[in-house]
Write a structure and sequence with these properties.
Elements: E1 5-12, E2 15-28, E3 33-37, E4 43-45, H1 51-60, H2 63-66, H3 71-75, H4 85-98, H5 115-123, H6 136-149, H7 162-175, E5 183-186, E6 192-197, H8 198-209, H9 217-232, H10 234-237, H11 243-248, E7 253-258, E8 262-267, E9 272-278, H12 286-296, H13 302-311, E10 315-317, E11 323-329, E12 334-335
Antiparallel strand pairs: 1-2, 1-11, 2-3, 2-9, 3-12, 4-6, 5-6, 7-8, 8-9, 10-11
């Protein structure tokens, strides 16, 4: 914690109530740290921010075309979806095209993260399903890769499975970080999860935003398609009321967050990218932190910044809409060089 900085604060009645500490790292196309707050070498688990990269091997092998996935079905492979009706429709279509049974998914049965979708199911006394899990699109992508390549479907989530070995190769390649140095643990959905320094994670997102920086042609082509789909079908990546889909409305930005406070985004025109970690694991301050980053670097799309403040308003309101305090981003980016 000695190297962490205050990223955001929340006040109630003029008195400080909550503090969110963490780290921010911004890199340029040379891989140099040009912006920082806290420690750019802080090692963080990527969690769901790894999903675009976990999808790249399937695109490299032409798997979505093999099974005639639509663009929306392709996009949900990178998603932390909310199991809205249109998400479930795409997921069910992938299952049908692959000829798989939902029980072959290792992610747990659950209700949707969308409150409305969850409440409708509960009101109708409908059961939990694996397909409702916010990582089910990622799982179906790896199952599609496994089926298309002739790998065993059993054990598809284990680190030693050949599909997961391909993913690790991509993570190491895109991060310029040795695979042997990447700490691997188990994510909430049962997949391998990767821990890397924020500097390397930001570099991965810069390459996703600017694929011309990728040397291997087959990886460059796949990453270009992944990032295009995330912008073209932003509603599939999470939901229109969540930060990822909201940022992806801006065609200049490719972005994805993960559980426990990790958030990443790359800027195409500016050719820089950021990775940040909120150390208490909170997602609530993400939008106001991202808005402040964009303001501090002189980002020229005010609409995107305003949409961030709409998600985490600077005014703190209670349940009846009364203003009772404020949210503040309080860090100052240090510019290196």
């Amino acid at each position: 914690m000695e190297s962490a900085v205050r990223l955001a604060e929340q006040y109630r009645g003029g008195r400080l109530e909550n503090i969110h500490f963490g780290h921010i790292c911004g890199v340029d196309e040379k891989g140099e740290v040009i912006f920082s707050a806290g420690d750019p070498d802080w090692v963080a688990f990527m969690r769901s921010s790894a999903k675009p990269f976990q999808a790249i091997p399937a695109f490299m092998h032409g798997i979505p075309e093999t099974y005639r996935f639509t663009d929306k079905e392709k996009t949900i492979m990178m998603a932390s979806h909310r199991a809205e009706a249109y998400h479930v429709e795409a997921l069910q279509s992938i299952l049908d095209k692959l000829g798989l049974n939902e029980d072959q998914l290792i992610c747990s049965q659950t209700y949707p993260l969308s409150p409305q979708a969850r409440d409708e199911l509960l009101a109708g006394h409908k059961p939990k399903r694996r397909i409702y899990h916010n990582c089910s699109g990622k799982h179906l992508g790896i199952l599609a890769l496994s089926k298309g390549k002739g790998y065993l479907l059993e054990g598809y989530g284990e680190p030693e499975h050949p599909a997961q070995a391909e993913v690790l190769d991509i993570v190491a390649y895109m991060s310029d970080y040795p695979a042997a140095d990447i700490h691997i643990s188990v994510d909430g959905c049962g997949f391998p999860v990767y821990a890397l320094p924020l500097k390397q994670i930001a570099g991965m997102y810069l390459k996703l935003a600017c694929p011309d920086l990728i040397g291997r042609a087959e990886v460059r082509s796949a990453a270009s398609e992944v990032s295009r789909l995330m912008n073209d079908h932003y509603e599939m990546v999470s939901a229109p009321w969540f930060i990822c889909s909201t940022l992806l409305r801006d065609p200049n930005i490719v972005a994805k967050g993960g559980a426990k406070g990790i958030y990443c985004f790359g800027l195409r025109k500016e050719r820089i990218a950021f990775a940040l970690k909120v150390l208490d694991g909170s997602e609530e301050p993400w939008p106001i932190i991202v808005a402040s980053i964009l303001e501090q670097i002189g980002f020229d799309n005010q609409d995107t910044i305003d949409r961030m403040y709409a998600l985490t308003p600077r005014e703190l309101r209670n349940d009846s809409g009364r203003t009772v305090g404020e949210n503040k981003a309080v860090f100052k980016l240090h510019r290196n060089g």
